[in-house]
Amino acid sequence: MSFDLTLLAPYLGDLAAGARLTALACALALAGGLVLGIIAALMRTAASPLARRVAEVYVDIFRNVPFIVQLFFLFYGLPEIGVELDAFSTGVLALSLAGGAFTSDVIRSGILAVEPGVLEAAQVSGLSRFALYRRIVLPIALRSSVRPLGSVFVNLILTSSILSAITLNELTGSAKIIAADTFQPFEVYALLLVLYAVLTWLVSLSAGALHRRLNRDHG
Question: Which residues in 87-105 are b (16+ Cβ under 10 Å) and which e?
Fold first, then answer.
C-alpha cells in the first residue's frame, strides 16, 4: 500500500472550509452552552425545589441520551411538528443543549466552591441576591471553571464530527466526501486524525493559558 498525501493537495481548501465550519459551530455552541449551563447551574443551586428538579431533568436527559439520538430528534423529528431548521442551525442547537448540560456541572461546582465567608460579607454589605451572583459568585465560579470549560469545548469539537450524519459538511463531513472522491481513505482519515488532534491541543493550551492569567493573583 502506498501513502501519498500529495493526492490530497487539491482538496485542502475543502478541508479548510470544513475546519472553519467546525470551529464556527463549536464556538457558537460554546456560547449557547455557557448560557444554558449558567442558567441550569443557578437553578440547581436555587432554593426552589421545582427549579432544581427542572434543571436536573434537563441535565439528565442531555447528559445520558446518546448525542446522535438528540441530533436526529432535532433534525428529523421536529419537522413533524412544524419546526424546521437547516443542518447548521440544528447542529449548533444540538451541541448547545448537550454542552449546556455538561457546563452546568462545571459552573455548579464553581458556585458551591465559593467560600461562605465571601457570601456572608457580601450579604452584610446589603447586596441583593441578583447583584450577589452577578458581581461576586458567578465571576469567582467562572474564573475557577476555565480549565474544565476548556475540556467541555474539546468535547464539543470531538462531538461535532457526528454532525456529518445530518449532511453538514464540517471537517468530518468534508473528509468523507474527499475519501469517496479520491479512493484514498487511509490518507484522508490520517490527516483528519492529525487535524482534530491539533484543534483540541490548541483549545487545551488556550484554556490553560487563560486559567493562569485569570488566577495569577488568586493563588
Answer: bbebbbbbbbbbbbbbbbb
